Backbone:
């Protein structure tokens, strides 16, 4: 039996076990604190990246919306350019068909006003090699009855 100042062998063994368990608990507590700190750091990093991801998703969504609206504008502009190109070609063809080509007329005989010189019929600047009989008008006809002006000769008429 145990005296009041002495511990029994079972009690001493229990105290040793309790001390060992306290040491283990202290070690676990220290290591658990390190693990919890690391988890908090990871949690903070995940939250930071989550906020960055949200911002990036908003910017991407905004850019996608802008791209879609610009794509529609681009398609409309392409159609408008095609329409205007066709109109320009039509106007150039009409203008070309309205022009007259002077054939056998010497260069620079008209002076400053070609129309006035032509209308007056004045041969004052023509040299003797060219007479009014050699002068003819060549009408620039474009697409007559759907024909390509390059494939068909121009009509000529004398004046």
Residues:
């Amino acid at each position: 039996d145990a005296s009041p100042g002495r511990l029994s062998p079972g009690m001493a063994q229990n105290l040793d076990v309790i001390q060992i368990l306290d040491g283990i608990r202290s070690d676990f507590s220290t290591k658990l604190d390190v693990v919890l700190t690391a988890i908090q750091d990871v949690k903070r990093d995940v939250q930071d990246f989550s906020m960055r991801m949200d911002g990036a998703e908003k910017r991407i969504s905004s850019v996608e919306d802008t791209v879609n609206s610009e794509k529609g504008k681009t398609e409309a502009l392409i159609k408008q350019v095609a329409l205007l190109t066709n109109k320009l070609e039509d106007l150039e063809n009409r203008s070309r068909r309205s022009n007259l080509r002077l054939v056998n007329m010497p260069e620079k005989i008209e002076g400053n006003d070609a129309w006035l010189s032509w209308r007056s019929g004045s041969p004052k600047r023509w040299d003797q090699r060219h007479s009014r009989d050699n002068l003819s008008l060549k009408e620039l006809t474009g697409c007559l009855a759907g024909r390509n002006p390059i494939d068909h000769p121009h009509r000529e008429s004398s004046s």
